[in-house]
Amino acid sequence: MAAEESTGSGIADTAEKITDGVALDVLAWFGFAVLAVVHILIGVIALQVAFGGTGQAEPTGALEQLASGTAGPWTMWACSLGCGGLALWQLSEATLRYRRNAVGKRLEKAVSSGSLAVT
């Protein structure tokens, strides 16, 4: 039984090292930037609507504006990549990196990061 636990721990340690790399962190930062741009666009659209313009002041309207530009498909692929990287980072936070926390914080971290990864 101890050998199986050691192997499981070794696999988790290796997976944690992989997800602790710079590449995943950069993708996560890019994902946060994408979310920031979407929220800024929602604010801009809300201001336009408040002053008599048209539009949908919600994530769908913001994404429509991003997609309608000349580089729309490329922009949407880049946004998808950033959001995917952010979700993968949150998943690693919920499943691997929480092991370093105290027992009481583990459940809290698993629930908070896990729900953000799903969202």
Count of DSSP E strands? 0
Shape: elongated
How many helix segments? 5
**Rounded radius of gyration (Å):** 19 Å
Largest sheet: none
Order of helices and strands: HHHHH
Helix content: over 70%
What structural class do helix, strand and pairing data support? mainly alpha
Strand content range: under 5%
Care to give the gist of this entry?
The chain has 119 residues and is an all-alpha fold. It contains 5 helices and no strands.
Polypeptide structure, described:
With 119 residues, this protein is an all-alpha fold. It has one domain (22-118). The protein has five helices and no strands. It has helices at 2-19, 22-50, 59-68, 72-95, 103-118. It is elongated and about 60 Å long. The two termini are 37 Å apart.
Question: Which helices and strands occur, and which strands form pairs?
Answer:
Layout: H1 2-19, H2 22-50, H3 59-68, H4 72-95, H5 103-118
Helix pairs in contact: 2-3, 2-4, 3-4, 4-5
Give short descriptive properties of this protein.
119 residues, mainly alpha, 82% helix
